[in-house]
Amino acid sequence: MSIVQAGMRLTVWGARGTVPIALEDPSRYGARTCCVSIEAQGRVLIFDAGTGIVDLGNRLMASGEREIDLFLGHAHYDHVIGFPYFLPFYNPACRVRIHAGHMQDGRNCRALLEDFLRAPFHPVGLEKFKADIEYVTFRPTDMLQPSAGIRITTHELTHPNGAVAYRVESDGRSVVYATDHEHRPGMRDVALETFIAGADVLIFDTTFTDEELPRYVGYGHSTYEEGVRLALATGVRRLVLFHHSHKRPDDDLARIEREMQTLLPGAVAGRPGLEIDLPALPRAPEI
């Protein structure tokens, strides 16, 4: 795994939601749950720790990467179930910062993860980690700067127990990771549109279709059609359809992908191994 030094590279490691299964075995869209990496300025930024993070961790250890930032969108099982199986946590040569800002009960990042990895639900806790780990607690709207040249802004999403979207900016490029969000049909979300506006890539929660959504009000998820509407309203050309339902067969996903591409040619269904490279843009000359 060769980490880009300029521009950005987005890689999907898992794109399913709820549970790590798919109706087909194997599935063209995978069964792994939410995990995306973004490489920028020679750094590895990871968004969510679903089962997709396991393969990513193995790749990072094999390639010698030792400086890692992990950002949690929230802590429902499909977004953290791979967390204790991320190999860099067990390597004393690794330095990992874990960020969480979705909590609505006053807990900090470390307390949240201690509660997740405890008996009788998991045999070992955070005390088994050997890496140099920093637990970072923030509030939605805070700006994060994991290293020079990378700026990450945050935005609160509508989801049970809370969720956070991230906008990553580096070398004139920007990627928004905004999954697990429920929109209100027929109503614009101006704050979210402002957060997304002009991004090169939007990774968005597309669990349902508009037709299905009324049966799932309050579940905290959005639709394929809403993802396209958001992209068109905000000038985003590349949309990654994400958090696919575990009930969605491959043929349905392929059909939806084709239909969304007729509305937005840059739409693509997320799947393990999907990579999008964003070369650095030249800087404007100083006056």
TrEMBL record:
Coiled coil: none annotated. CDD domains: TaR3-like_MBL-fold (cd07715). It comes from the Bacteria. Residues 45-244 form the Metallo-beta-lactamase domain. SUPFAM superfamilies: Metallo-hydrolase/oxidoreductase. InterPro entries: Metallo-B-lactamas, RibonucZ/Hydroxyglut_hydro. GO terms for molecular function: 3'-tRNA processing endoribonuclease activity. This is Phosphoribosyl 1,2-cyclic phosphodiesterase. The lineage of its organism: Bacteria, Pseudomonadati, Pseudomonadota, Alphaproteobacteria, Hyphomicrobiales.
